[in-house]
# Entry
Amino acid sequence: MFRRALLASFLVLAASGAHAQAPTPAQMHERAIVLDTHFDTPANFSARGWSIMDRHDYAVDGTQVDYPRMVEGGVDGGVFVVFTPQRGRDVVADMWSRDHALLRTVEILEMTARHHEHFVLVTTADEARAAVAEGRKFVFISLENGAPLAGDLSLMQTFYRLGVRMMGPVHFANNDLADSSTDPAGPEWGGLSEKGRAFVRHANDLGIVIDPSHASDAALDQMLELSRAPLVLSHSGVKAVYDHPRNIPDDLLRKLADKGGVIQVNAFSGYMVETPRIPERNAALIALTEKYGPQRDVKPEQREAYLAERAAIEAKYPLPRANMDDLMQHILHVVETVGIDHVGLSGDFDGGGGIEGLEDVTTFPALTERLVAAGFTQSDLDKFWGGNVLRVMEQVQAAAAR
Amino acid sequence: MFRRALLASFLVLAASGAHAQAPTPAQMHERAIVLDTHFDTPANFSARGWSIMDRHDYAVDGTQVDYPRMVEGGVDGGVFVVFTPQRGRDVVADMWSRDHALLRTVEILEMTARHHEHFVLVTTADEARAAVAEGRKFVFISLENGAPLAGDLSLMQTFYRLGVRMMGPVHFANNDLADSSTDPAGPEWGGLSEKGRAFVRHANDLGIVIDPSHASDAALDQMLELSRAPLVLSHSGVKAVYDHPRNIPDDLLRKLADKGGVIQVNAFSGYMVETPRIPERNAALIALTEKYGPQRDVKPEQREAYLAERAAIEAKYPLPRANMDDLMQHILHVVETVGIDHVGLSGDFDGGGGIEGLEDVTTFPALTERLVAAGFTQSDLDKFWGGNVLRVMEQVQAAAAR
# Structure
């Protein structure tokens, strides 16, 4: 919303008799291109009755991103994720993963085609900026987990041609490309496999942003060594603030920044504060889902009962929940350690993310208030909310074209 | 347009004082579900400035199918084709073919998503009938040429999951699945290869209609032997009327019908009347295309000059062109040989088809006039224009489900 905001600010200036007037945090938020690098929202696209054009309520159906709420939150676009769970590592699993990812990608393309007045698929930073200028929400596509490519790396080009411009090699479990940061079995390759190294080279060649979120520290380190272009950790935290396998240590944070990359701080409670595992709570939540279906799909006439039962479970087995203070600690640690050019945000929305105060995309202006209070200028906000990632996108594509 | 036509006819009856009044051919055409099994129109989807929602003129841009003309021609839907040229038969060609077909399929899905008020993707006969009832044009998807699957037959399921419900194994040239009817080198497999036989089995298992158009007679014969379900020749003619490799002999026509299948008579001039090869004409047409680009893409300001130059070439090197009499001969031969349950039509539009009098989809009612004059009843028209193909679709899917 840069142009419109600029015009509005000019009119304010003119009306006030050319006396300079400090913009409010809300105005500063409007001026920035605001994106999130990890919307798991496409998982909702095929749900019966769910439309991205409707306004949903997080407290009711648990979803966190839709068009009306993007408008409310001043969110200009994002990286929409094709998430593929790691089903196995044989030829059947490879085909399943390939098909799953192709179909999910197509669902995103169908969404942008169907709602072309409000959304537009983009593949470059310039296209994203053009979308903002014309008032449409931009949609980058990313693969979360390289499993769809594990059986045949030539599919990377297929997904590229379909519009995918960001890919992460691995998810919760080790796979044929890389070690995960969270596989209970521990490392298998000591980082990247030979195929994982080919994944990095091919992504570089095509101009696909590599996203090492979920990869083990060793795999991240090797991607940093190997890649000819900067990387984006699309949703990760820092170990210096909270020691969790999904967060990265300062030496890798510095290496990431030295290569020009960005960490998009993940607003995911379980990776930010000590979160005990309560088997009784988990069992009760599973039983609740078995009774009503997933929260998003609970029948309207059963909503009230569902929410009451869930509240009872939460009351009986409370879990600590990260808040904006925790989030600010991660963000400010990155800024202090490697500077404003290497940080951004992801809510990990519709993928388990969200913390107290940052429950869905409507809450992003509240984070801008905190950032401004912490001293962020307009330029800092511009970088944090989108500029850094768009810069990396350009660098990655320039490196590929060379 | 069944319901609306029925209502109109009821009003006519009521107005005429309940005296029975024979419906006109135009009314009979409206009452039938009218489809074409081979629209090559998706090749136009990615052309700059071309939209299926605009009314085009065949005489000007050479295209033959769009929404306004489907409405004019009383056409309710069709099989939209993902055509893949046979580029080669190595691993690089296999990947190219796979990606080409996936991208073309996605273009069709994006078209139906973008124009969802006017078009709808369908995968069953019932869905097609529902589309007609709600006034939307139905879109089946077919693969013309099995080359996209040649490297990995598991991709058949991928395309199935994307909505494809008809597939032909081969096009102009022999490939890894089957012999073509038109490969200058002659037969290579003597019909189907082992992979081609697997193609038939997998298509049967999934409930995909097998389309042996373009296959050699031997390959067609083997598909008829092997398939557990009826076949549809989506755009073919009969040798008894004109002896051309793209037309089938009466023994195979009978075998096709015995298995419950359908031949959709192809309105493709070069396969219907003796068409000499005039090298000077071809050279002149190639030079014309080099000068102006393909007809569809000729710049508006150059259209007049282009059309004048083309008319001059046509005048200098005239070619005989099939007409409605020729087409009726093919149709009536099929009816006389195997009956009304095994015949339909394809214009092969946007793929080289069209004859004098049947230049684009707006002309379909003219064919209905000819058919009625030849004695077709409403029931015959219902079968010819869509019922036969929808019946086979149901039989194929029932056989798969078993």
Chain B has two domains: 27-275+321-401, 276-319. Strands of chain B lie at 35-39, 77-83, 119-121, 137-144, 164-168, 209-210, 232-238, 247-248, 262-266, 343-346.
